[in-house]
């Protein structure tokens, strides 16, 4: 029995059935099975918790105690919950941008760099236009941050569409360019002369800072993220552009024969993807740090890749997974009080990604029986 086109056979194992007739078991790889079951992300999280529990127990601690500590630290108090939401904002915006690009199988792993240049562009407004009113400061910071992130995304899209350069390479390399540019400005021209020689820009004024909720650090960047998710849902579900994205993602060949300009869509989604990450950078400097400094992002752009994949590009799923990973980050800080390093959260993130990839790969295999 020959495999279908696009499939690859793996092994043949002769076995005897109840009737005594021999048949073979064939393991086939089916490249057309791109959608794994809805429960794969849930199972991935559970398996990641079990795997990390082994390492926690090997360290002489109870996994249940550690996980309870992480949960209470992230969700058990009002302070912990608001801090989780603060961490979820850049994850949601960057994850949404990655999800938009991956709709047509474009891998944008440059959200870290796009976030960084968005933060730099927003800070430029505070440096060169320091006396603007609150409305114009925030508006220009949002516009500049979005534009800078979109431009960084475009620098990945153009080599892909015009020269066939893999976007994994360009988007990853541009992350390092952005980080080096950040080092240059915070150690050089934008360094605060009153900052006791620490690398960073001058502190933002109240007019240059995003409004916050009460006495917490939760800022209106959350509104930016939720509005962006709503627009994403409406555009994907109810517009021609969204239909074309779904068609390209499902069958690029059919989309091309239908007259859809795939290269144009790659450029558009990378502009959107980079712009959303740029908004995340603007929200981070204006709503959290209130200054541009070295290490403005602790890896939000990379973590957002797992957020988007775990959510299976679903709008509601993106909100849930960004809060989950925000909670992992905050929970990681909490366990330091009982003697574990905060890197436990990074171990959990890595384990979740491992099981997600494994689940998707296993799903692409079919077991067939032939006489």
UniProtKB/TrEMBL annotation:
Segments crossing the lipid bilayer: 38-58, 78-102, 135-156, 168-187, 218-236, 266-286, 292-311, 316-335, 347-365
Keyword set includes Transport: yes
Membrane in keyword set: yes
One Pfam family cited in the UniProt record for this chain: BPD_transp_2
Superkingdom of the source species: Bacteria
Membrane topology: Multi-pass membrane protein
Signal peptide: none
Keywords for this protein: Cell membrane, Membrane, Sugar transport, Transmembrane, Transmembrane helix, Transport
Chief localisation class: membrane
Places the protein is found: Cell membrane
InterPro entries, per the entry: ABC_transp_permease
Protein's name according to its UniProt entry: Simple sugar transport system permease protein
